[in-house]
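Our collaborator T.R. sent over the components below with a one-line note: 'Predict the complex.' Nothing else. No constraints on interfaces, no templates requested, no preferences about which chain binds where. So this is a plain run: every listed entity goes in together, and whatever single assembly comes back becomes the starting point for the next discussion.
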Amino acid sequence: MRYVYTLREGTANASGLLGEKGANLAEMTGMGLPVPPGFIVTTDACAYFLRSGRLPEECEEQIRARLPCLEDGTDKKFGEGRTVSVRHGSEISMPGIVESILNAGLNDQTVKIFAQQSGENFAYNSYARFIKTFGIVILGIPPERFKSTASAKNDCESFKRIIESEKHVFPQDAEEQILECVRGMFRSWNSPKAADYRKKNGIDSAIGTACIVQSMIYGNLPASGTGVCFSRDPSTGKKKIYGEFISGMQGEDLVSGIVTPEPIDRMKDIFPSAYAEIGTIASLLESHYRDMQYMEFTIEKSKLYILEVARAKRTSEAAVRAAVEMAEEGLITREEAIMRVDPYEARRLLQKRIDPSAEKRTIAKGIGASPGAASGEIIFDTQKAAELTAKGRKVILVVKDTSPDDIPVIPSCQALVAAGGGATSHAIVIARGMGMPCITSAGIKLDYAGRNISAGGVSVAEGSIITVDGSTGDIIEGEVLMGEPAASKYFNTLLSWCDSFASIRVFANADNPEDAEKAIKAGARGIGLCRTEHMFFGERLQEIQKMIMEDDKGKSLEKMMEFQKQDFIGIFKIMGSLPVTIRLLDPPLHEFLPDPDKLKEELALLKKEGQNTAEKERMLENVMSLKEKNPMMGLRGCRLGIMFPEIYAMQTKAIIAAAMETGATPEIMIPLVSSWEEMKETRSIIDKAAADFMAKQKKWANYSIGAMIELPRACITADRIADYAAFFSFGTNDLTQATYGFSRDDAEKKFLARYLESHLLEENPFLTIDKNGVGALIRIASVAGKRKNVRMSVCGEHGGDPASIKFFDSLGLDYVSCSVYSIKIARLAAAQSSIKRKEISS
Amino acid sequence: MRYVYTLREGTANASGLLGEKGANLAEMTGMGLPVPPGFIVTTDACAYFLRSGRLPEECEEQIRARLPCLEDGTDKKFGEGRTVSVRHGSEISMPGIVESILNAGLNDQTVKIFAQQSGENFAYNSYARFIKTFGIVILGIPPERFKSTASAKNDCESFKRIIESEKHVFPQDAEEQILECVRGMFRSWNSPKAADYRKKNGIDSAIGTACIVQSMIYGNLPASGTGVCFSRDPSTGKKKIYGEFISGMQGEDLVSGIVTPEPIDRMKDIFPSAYAEIGTIASLLESHYRDMQYMEFTIEKSKLYILEVARAKRTSEAAVRAAVEMAEEGLITREEAIMRVDPYEARRLLQKRIDPSAEKRTIAKGIGASPGAASGEIIFDTQKAAELTAKGRKVILVVKDTSPDDIPVIPSCQALVAAGGGATSHAIVIARGMGMPCITSAGIKLDYAGRNISAGGVSVAEGSIITVDGSTGDIIEGEVLMGEPAASKYFNTLLSWCDSFASIRVFANADNPEDAEKAIKAGARGIGLCRTEHMFFGERLQEIQKMIMEDDKGKSLEKMMEFQKQDFIGIFKIMGSLPVTIRLLDPPLHEFLPDPDKLKEELALLKKEGQNTAEKERMLENVMSLKEKNPMMGLRGCRLGIMFPEIYAMQTKAIIAAAMETGATPEIMIPLVSSWEEMKETRSIIDKAAADFMAKQKKWANYSIGAMIELPRACITADRIADYAAFFSFGTNDLTQATYGFSRDDAEKKFLARYLESHLLEENPFLTIDKNGVGALIRIASVAGKRKNVRMSVCGEHGGDPASIKFFDSLGLDYVSCSVYSIKIARLAAAQSSIKRKEISS
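Returned assembly:
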């Protein structure tokens, strides 16, 4: 039976027999890399040892027979200064569990030869280390017994005596040392520490470990050195050898940071041939592994040895550039290039970020609700924020909870911080749609009276500068150094490849011509959600407030129709022949009215000043009559359209008028449908308004009507709703809310963080779709929709989330619609999903 | 081919050929009832006529051959004063569509004989009527041409001249009159009016009509009269002939109300043998039809004729008594008796009601949220209500919206009126559970400052007496005459039969020993929902408020544990070996704290008075920090248990302690579960608390743990949740809310009424389960639950709704749990559901 393989004899695919590390070394050796010579004792030998307590006789013979291989290509013989390392290595890596034995082969004689080669101090230090590790790892003597002194030579003697006092023998014969080390490595497989690790990580104890015996190479000899390098720049991806190097030192010294290494280019002068060899090896490795590589190397007496090779860790930016360039070099396919980029990490490439090297003092940590970073003055009032931003000042709006009042001022701010609220509350969704950094549940206390925020004892006054990081949720004192978005031409090249592979398309959520323009630039194939309510914020808010409060709504509606029409014309013109889906008014009307508490305060003030309070009182009355205990489940969506048909009729007219003028074929979406009856009723309001208007104008326009599926009941009864809908758009925010019964506004603040921490939830279901619950409902509806040839898409926040996109693609939905700033990531995720599916099915 | 059948020749099951009415008359004749003789011309003849425009020759012959039958048992010959009616009658009744022809057989000669028998005026009136109807119905002359004058004799002449002037012939020959009437009846089948009616009612035109020719009987001859009667008293169900009678008059006169009829008993003296015959016929009809009967009869010259027989309409009370007594008489089976009582109508038998004859002035009409009626003083404040009821005053609590503050005072009030809110809001559910009349969305305006309510211009001051009808939603000025509940010993007898037939059992929702006692009395087989939060209202509210506001909750929890334990002991003792399901704390904590607006007002007052505001300010801070935008989807249910495990641990200890003392095996229910992870986490809190407590006490108690399934996600993932649950209890209130996205608190007020009116909803889904949506989710969960042997039940409001019970029974659920006041109705509905299923499957 064969128990021992030299590195030349081993193969990469024998990791069961040779262990993962052993197989890798064999693979590198097989490729012709200058790997220090050595051999591997197999896991079969380990199994035999663990059964019988001894190595098979053939194994010991085979080890002895292979000792000469340790001298391959080196000028030292084993037993004459040549030392070896002995390492364990199973099929599944167990890093740090069993210490490696270094410098084996040293004894009282050879240490002297070694001292001549490497200096006395280094030689005795190495010998002492060997004796100590041998005592601890192989013989099991408690580590605290081995105490080092100032003299390594003395340590050698005292360590040997400790071993003897423990009734053990320290073998002076180098061969016996190796055999004993191999036995010790096998014995260590069943140490409590190793067994515990396997139990925790679910590793089968039966696999056993192999044992690697390899020549040691010393970088601290004359004409020697050590270094690490990458085949491409790990932070930019640029193709060039990138790394560090030190002369006359060991790998340990490089790691420990006692000396400052030099850039690898410097090797050109000192070790020109080794430097050239590294370049050749890097190319060889990239061709072999078809990816960017990391290498650890040592030069001993001008000769290069490769100690370890691994897939290179890299920044997102580097990942993109390397993938694109490797595809262009023909090293990998375009599909592979696409699959190499993590979309979650790539998201950061599109945002401003805090320079990682910047010094910073974090005041508080909230939930990062929209990535990116920004600095600016803290301002509490929307009014004041509007004034300051008008003057060109950079403002970070800090509020207790987001409210509709904030929405008009959001676009002009740098960032939004909410002390409470969830990552999918209304204002946050809007801010995220604008690519603005946001933090919610910020963990700060707002003191309006004292005009400051405080957290953990630190207080920052209104007007002070802070910096927020919307990825991490950090709120940082003062201004912090920023880096520009890292997205590069390489990323755009990658994206340009994506669309041809993706089967699920990417649309944009866009509420105005500016966003439509951005959407087109980012590669959106249409608008999947145009929220008409956003058209009423800003200076038009007054008009809708009038409409709500007046009994005769006709005049206000007429005005609103006119400006909605202009909005739609603007959007249709930009989108050309691309589809535009317009959602009719969705939020409860009270969202357009001021907060009652604020109104009460204002009223009190007016009274105090003896001013006329009639107007405000009327408004307060309206607000109070519209107030609901659970507005999310109240009078909104198509319920509003049914109770106030004149509003939907007005919006329909505006849409049709804009379509007439531009030739667009709008898709009209009805929100919050719970039944086919509602769908039928609402579509009859729309159809009638459209027909009346077209008859009056004597012009015609095509349009289609679809349902926003965002209630569990709509999913369950989708089969009937499909009879009245040309398309379904899954509103996954509200659907998640209703399916879980988690209020978007309250849950994150109150318990979601705790749920995520305790793994009661693996993901925040408002960010990544809950496949088992919400997803199951979507599946039910999508099966019904497919049967009835209904076009289907998603327009909730999940439309921009890569994991969710993969799920929607698996259901065969036609497109996802996401915020303008998520389009690129969504395109990448869509392509990856399709490529993955093809891989699995092929 | 046979086209004509006498009533003796026809059979009941030939309604296709004879029409419905014809077949009925034939059936009555066949039973030997004294039906006026006659014959039927079949729908085959009609089809022939409509095809060819004429009657088949055989048909005319057959009619002529059967004319003598019209004289059966009468002393008049046809053509000698014997008159007939000619009526249409298809298989599906088309009432009022074609006028009947009366008094056919009269001509210029026979009218004189008729005049001798019935008086000249009556005879000529009859003749004129015949000529006129003949002209209009048979000949199609416009009705406005026939104008009556003071002299019937003159009318006869002028009407005949009108017919002649229209180029028609009024046949003087009686046989020809009949033939012509039959043709006219057939022709009328295709009149626009008839065709229109059939189209509207979806009646197939191909069925055609039959034509009934029947001797006329006159009650206005000497020794004659007419009347109607029931086989049992239609308002009480008592077995005796009940009806009215008038001497010497026609049926028309009785119906028109020109004369006041006498009670039917009076016939004993005037027509003793006819009276006796009616009794015999009533028995005969009941045996034949196996149900209570209604009859119309005429006596002509002392001889009784039965003109019409139908199933008797009756009150709920009568329905119950008649069904029970018929079963006891052996006329019907017990199952049939159970099926005869409409559970929705029977519900009224269990409540006080407004005397139908009472005069009343309704001020406003809201939604009847809990049936029954009550009078009392209007009071706006819970505080004041508590004071007055303590003095024994009858109070109707009128509030804007129900709030937890109201709950302690509710039991002592007569009724609850909420200006806003829904029929399933918290306080209403509680009030309904107590059988208290409630009205929501009352359509009144509350003026707290002016201390009055107003609606439609009427204003009623606080302290004034009103009466409310919780069935109709009426709010009535002053005190109105009341009737006691109509439920009788008969209803209880019926119920005693129900349980042996029902497969789905009925449990009670009961939160205290008093309700448990009532539940047992009403026949509940266990408690399916014991809401622990209700144990914290009243004077204990302070304790839970302390617990919420204190950082160290230990001491408050200790106190709460003690009184909860006493509550459970009380309930367990009453329930004995019957199961008791206890739901752990469910509502958001802020429900236990005062309303923030009220607190603010109180604070302002305290400040004004210069008093210490610290306590109130702390409370306000707490209230504000607990405030949620959509509390229904916020921090409640098991989320609360997970965030504050000490609360559920305390409740568990109280339950286990009570179980130790009484030997009960409590079922502990976890509310608002959305995932198996939550279920696992919560049950580990409970199991640990129970184990610790038992170890400390060195005593043992059995218990089981189940999940309240009230979120769509719980239904969808029930399969996994079942791994941690011994039972599922469907909380259909919250499940309906989340599935539709309809807030229970807001929907009824804001749009549900409109939805019901417009048939966007066929039923209020909070009262009758929505089978297609919510029900489909319950079905998914119940299939999963059954597979894993989970016991299943319903504890939402729908548990007391008959239609919903039928649905739950069809899913094979084990029991429904409903408020104490719905138990009896639920038992009836449960039995009916099982009987119906057996009928269908047999």
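Summary for T.R.: Chain B touches chain A through 50 residues (CB under 8 Å).
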